Amino acid sequence: MVVYRICVATGHYFLAGTLDSISVTLVGTNAESPKQRLDHIGRDFTRGAVQKYKVNCFCELGELLLVRIHKERYSFFPKDSWYCSYITVTDPDEVVTCFPCYQWIEGYCTVELRPGTGKTICHDSLPLLLDHRKKELRARQECYRWKIYAPGFPRMVDVNSFEEMESDRKFALTKMTPSADQDFSGNRYLPGFTFKIDIPSLSHMDPNIRYSFTKTASLLSNAIPPSLGMKLRGLLNRQGSWKKLDDIRKIFWCHKTLTSQYVTEHWKEDHFFGYQYLNGVNPVMIHQISNLPSNFPVTDPMVAPSLGPSTCLQAELEKGSIFLADYWILGEAPVGHLNGRPQYVAAPLCLLWLSPQGVLLPLAIQLLLPHTRYTLQVNTIARATLLNPEGLVDQVTSIGRPGLLYLMSTGLAHFTYTMFCLPDNLKARGVQCLPNYYYRDDGMKIWEAIEKFVSEIVNYYYPSDTFVQQDSELQAWVGEIFTQAFLGRKNSGFPSCFNTTEELVKFLTAVIFNCSAQHAAVNSGQHDFGSWMPNAPSSMRNPPPQTKGTTTLKTYLDTIPEVNITCNNLLLFWLVSQEPKDQRPLGTYPDEHFTEEAPRQSIAAFQNCLAQISEEIQDRNKTLDLPYAYLDPPLIENSVSI
């Protein structure tokens, strides 16, 4: 009789333990162990428990390939979810093999775990392991199916498939739900909310992608108190214009930040207007120009008061100190109604000048009156609360849901790989030398740290270009992204296949950067820059003025959003800017999926590099009147989770 010792770890999440019966089978190159139930006196698999057992075998199993976990009914108890962190197996020669799990196991089923040694399909030759890869891939395809949300949109995950998985219904792997079948029958108001929520789409989420209990509780605690406070003060239902601007200060009197107070005090100043194009919530809009666009007839007399007598517009264009922000995409955006009144939207062109003092200042603005790790979970929440009919977007913005769908589909049609990759983006926009561009400076440091980390990992598992080219799973993955996310647009420049490790490193670096740092840069400051509503109004009740100097305070107050619209919009800004608890900052990997020493060393080096970047950012911020901390690594979430 040969004895194998195993160690089973249950996660620390709320309700991670189970009362179900757990058994294991060890699978080796020579033989399989008998199925053995894991059972001590008392409850075995409690939250945070690490239990040890012995598995008796008739012979040595050889190199361990798989651990099968069998989860079955225990006595009369109902089905009970279980979060298994990992299983380690010690063989008779005292060799320890770790089998990472780090997932919720639902219902009664068998789950197969592989060792934590990372392998590509090129490294697997045994039929058993190749078959396991196919089964795992097929299971994921069955669970995460594509769905067409709207014409021109990247494909999205079909949440209904989780409900079908829960009820054990079968379906074709290639099934795709068209937009014409979009069902919003469950779209309804909830007590205390002024907008509709698509309840069914939030009700069936795979447990391994939905928010943890801690994160859910944190999200609700962020949402309910300010919403209730506004409701009790009658602000959420109060229509009509603000009587004076100072009244807006009272909305979030208890949620002020250093940046939000700075915005309130400086929002009308030219230097701060220019600053927001560099370090505000949209720091990727401006680009350097050498000629004025034909639809922007700016003349020297118009800008002479700003430029001064020692230069002219053409000279500054030739020097490379003129920049443009062009909101052309808003030109054809449909507009809706708020509080029963038609709304308006402008498609402005903004000309900015880099002064000799290194300050970016507005020169001219033209309003054209035209005829805005839980990633799957948070995207589903967004579709259920923001993009659903009569959701928040319909309630607080001029363009509403139809306009936002237009912006997103049009934006995707013009989105390129150059725009996706920070170094290429900065070069294409001609902003490498702009001073005080902290988004660029911090972003490039993080990009380079991610790139070095990714390069080490990729080159460890893909020693040459041939390994990349022969990895059929990798090629299928990037091909699916190209087809489903970027709709197969060859002019986008996005790769549809990988030929070299260099191409793979660049793509993975861009994905990680955009899902972590870029999201932090454009999302985290929304409350800071938007809580003073006049700095970022979400709608216009009157068309923009056609004659300079005709605007008065009254006409301005009658144009910016009404009281209830403002409050709903500020609630949105507050929620999306507050990262719920259960955070995992960039570079934090508590689930140990890699067991080899080389990847562990790369992770440690990545973390040290991020710590150094953080120290540099914090030292610089001590010298600034308005610190820029959105790309400080400890404040960047590993993934899009809010």
UniProtKB/TrEMBL annotation:
<protein>
    <submittedName>
        <fullName>Arachidonate epidermal lipoxygenase 3</fullName>
    </submittedName>
</protein>
<dbReference type="Pfam" id="PF01477">
    <property type="entry name" value="PLAT"/>
</dbReference>
<feature type="binding site">
    <location>
        <position position="519"/>
    </location>
    <ligand>
        <name>Fe cation</name>
    </ligand>
</feature>
<dbReference type="InterPro" id="IPR036392">
    <property type="entry name" value="PLAT/LH2_dom_sf"/>
</dbReference>
<comment type="pathway">
    <text>Lipid metabolism.</text>
</comment>
<dbReference type="InterPro" id="IPR013819">
    <property type="entry name" value="LipOase_C"/>
</dbReference>
<keyword id="KW-0223">Dioxygenase</keyword>
<keyword id="KW-0408">Iron</keyword>
<dbReference type="InterPro" id="IPR001024">
    <property type="entry name" value="PLAT/LH2_dom"/>
</dbReference>
<feature type="domain" description="Lipoxygenase">
    <location>
        <begin position="119"/>
        <end position="642"/>
    </location>
</feature>
<keyword id="KW-0479">Metal-binding</keyword>
<dbReference type="InterPro" id="IPR042062">
    <property type="entry name" value="PLAT_LOX_verte"/>
</dbReference>
<dbReference type="GO" id="GO:0005506">
    <property type="term" value="F:iron ion binding"/>
</dbReference>
<feature type="site" description="Essential for stabilizing binding to COTL1">
    <location>
        <position position="104"/>
    </location>
</feature>
<comment type="similarity">
    <text>Belongs to the lipoxygenase family.</text>
</comment>
<dbReference type="GO" id="GO:0016702">
    <property type="term" value="F:oxidoreductase activity, acting on single donors with incorporation of molecular oxygen, incorporation of two atoms of oxygen"/>
</dbReference>
<feature type="binding site">
    <location>
        <position position="17"/>
    </location>
    <ligand>
        <name>Ca(2+) 1</name>
    </ligand>
</feature>
<dbReference type="InterPro" id="IPR036226">
    <property type="entry name" value="LipOase_C_sf"/>
</dbReference>
<keyword id="KW-0443">Lipid metabolism</keyword>
<keyword id="KW-0963">Cytoplasm</keyword>
<feature type="binding site">
    <location>
        <position position="80"/>
    </location>
    <ligand>
        <name>Ca(2+) 1</name>
    </ligand>
</feature>
<dbReference type="InterPro" id="IPR000907">
    <property type="entry name" value="LipOase"/>
</dbReference>
<keyword id="KW-0106">Calcium</keyword>
<feature type="binding site">
    <location>
        <position position="39"/>
    </location>
    <ligand>
        <name>Ca(2+) 2</name>
    </ligand>
</feature>
<dbReference type="InterPro" id="IPR001885">
    <property type="entry name" value="LipOase_mml"/>
</dbReference>
<keyword id="KW-0560">Oxidoreductase</keyword>
<dbReference type="GO" id="GO:0005737">
    <property type="term" value="C:cytoplasm"/>
</dbReference>
<dbReference type="GO" id="GO:0034440">
    <property type="term" value="P:lipid oxidation"/>
</dbReference>
<feature type="domain" description="PLAT">
    <location>
        <begin position="2"/>
        <end position="119"/>
    </location>
</feature>
<feature type="binding site">
    <location>
        <position position="642"/>
    </location>
    <ligand>
        <name>Fe cation</name>
    </ligand>
</feature>
<dbReference type="Pfam" id="PF00305">
    <property type="entry name" value="Lipoxygenase"/>
</dbReference>
